[in-house]
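call fold(seq) -> tokens
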Amino acid sequence: MRAQGERGPHAQGALCGQALGFGPPGAAGQPLVCPQRGRACEWFGSLAGLLGPLTCDTSAASRWWAVTCLGHLLRTGAENTDVAPWTNEIGRLRERLSAVTSESLLATSTNIAKLVCKYFPRGQASGFMSSIVESLLCTRPVCAWAAERWTLTFLGDCGEQIFQEEVPKLVHLLYTCLRSTRQSARRCFVLRAVFLLAHSHPQPVLDSLLQACLPTDSDMVEVWRSLGRSVLGCQILVCLTEKLRAAGKSSHRSECCTRELGSSQAALEPRTVRSAAQALVPLHICFPARASAQGSFVPFASARGASQGAVPGWRQR
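ret:
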């Protein structure tokens, strides 16, 4: 799949329509043929990631295509088959896409994202994020901003829908996005996205970050410092300290850790763990009393509430 800049948005909408089983729209108000229920489920994440940002495209026809395809996608491939409540809502939101200001389009697109996330199937995160990353590279600013909104909405509202085995790929996609840009606003967005993912899946994200880079990688140091300033900072630092402590034990103890923690965690390079801990230490000179002495993550509040102010400097567009 190519980036949006290489293929017209209207053509993308037409391709998505074909994938969902219906052809081009006819006259205004003409109903589209609904495909068989369940047909699109396998591609729900990928199609949602592609269509979401197009709801803010500069072409009114592309916006119409995008929201129409999303409606059919919900009807055929949603996790919850009782999608009747969205019928009137999606029509109302589609009418709002005739707005001419970027702010109005972004607000409507965000509401559509929240609606789609209510019915998002489990195990579709990899496809969704792979598609949405292409939109982040789009040359049309409003579509790129919409991609950011959709990403944050998905990670904040659908954390439980993400399988743990999908986390390493999501971390890789976000980290690649971070390394590919020097724009301050875009980097703050990626840091916020990493936080939301870590809030839902702390241990898999921690392990994936430790395996993703060299110890002296400046981009990863920025990720660690951002997490250190968030509500997860103390728990992450405790866990890194425990990993360093385990790495210094005897070979017998290391074998025990391998059996208890799994080979992927036991094989982590101590120098990488030490570098991550050093990035966090200046932010947390001492542990709070509530931090777990065993280095495990304490229970979290909801991702939506904790995401407020999680990454200093990030502002909604």
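The two ends are 27 Å apart (CA to CA).
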